[in-house]
Amino acid sequence: MSVLLAVFIAVLQGVTELFPVSSLGHAVILPAVLGLGIDQRAPEFLPFLVVLHLGTATALLLYFWQDWLDILLGLIGRRSAQRAESRQVLLLVIVATIPAVFLGYLFEHKLKDLFGVPTIAAGFLFVNGFLLFFGERLRRRRDSLNGQKDLAELSWKGALAIGLWQCTAFLPGISRSGATMVGGLLSGLSHRASAHFSFLIATPVILGAAILEVPKLLHHAAAPGMATASLVGGIAAGLTAFASIAFLMHYFRKHDFEALNPFAFYCWLAGGGSLLFLWLA
């Protein structure tokens, strides 16, 4: 893989990982649609994607450094209302992460074969549009009854539900951030609070995946230029992800009414169009 191609995939990943449109789906679909000549079933391809995710996780840590610092101080400092709230947020992050760790361990090998099939990824990307669209409809009905909550008001049951929604992203084409945002909306959070929590719980999940997959990349580093392409790609993904986070947090602050609809329309267009193209090609 050339460095230029790695940067292209990295920029794509940095945007689509945090936008609710499935980074993994795009990484599987676009090489096939554009004829980029990438062997998506090669043993080093998935670890390469994980390095890009590691760049994204770094961007998340840097953008939300204050949250993680508050959580750290909440663990080691004296009790106070603010630190009690930080401990509560940490507990919610842990609860929301457990389903992905448990189900990922059980089904990783069974689902891995789907990652290299562009038509499957395109189909699930199309389905992702319905997830976002109907999530907004259900959220509107729930808001009319109960109103919206801040992140500090989220219960452990709500965090667990969001964690279960996150597990749908084991299917290529289903967006992790989109699923967790929908889960947050259905648990009573506002769009901004849902996005905030989605980005917080992304960090341990992505870092955990990197711990598992980066050694495999090093093992396959004999592939020409793979180590360099991965390093440059990881940096590009991190920079792009940081800009994406800033944009989305601003977007959800300004648009708290059916904010996921534009992304649903995009998924229908991109997923349906790609699926049709791949069938006819």
> Which residues sit in consecutive blocks of at least 5 with pLDDT less than 50?
none
Oligomer: single chain
| Mean pLDDT value | 83
Strand share of the residues? under 5%
Order of helices and strands: HHHHHHHHHHH
What does this structure look like?
There is one protein chain. By secondary structure, this protein is an all-alpha fold. It has one domain. The longest helix has 32 residues.
Task: Looking at this protein, list some descriptive labels.
281 residues; mainly alpha
Give the topology, please.
Blueprint: H1 3-16, H2 23-34, H3 45-63, H4 65-76, H5 81-112, H6 118-146, H7 156-166, H8 176-186, H9 191-219, H10 226-254, H11 261-280
Helix pairs in contact: 1-2, 1-10, 2-6, 3-9, 3-10, 4-5, 5-7, 5-9, 6-8, 6-11, 7-8, 8-9, 9-10
Please give a quick description of this structure:
The chain has 281 residues and is mainly alpha-helical. It has helices at residues 3-16, 23-34, 45-63, 65-76, 81-112, 118-146, 156-166, 176-186, 191-219, 226-254, 261-280.
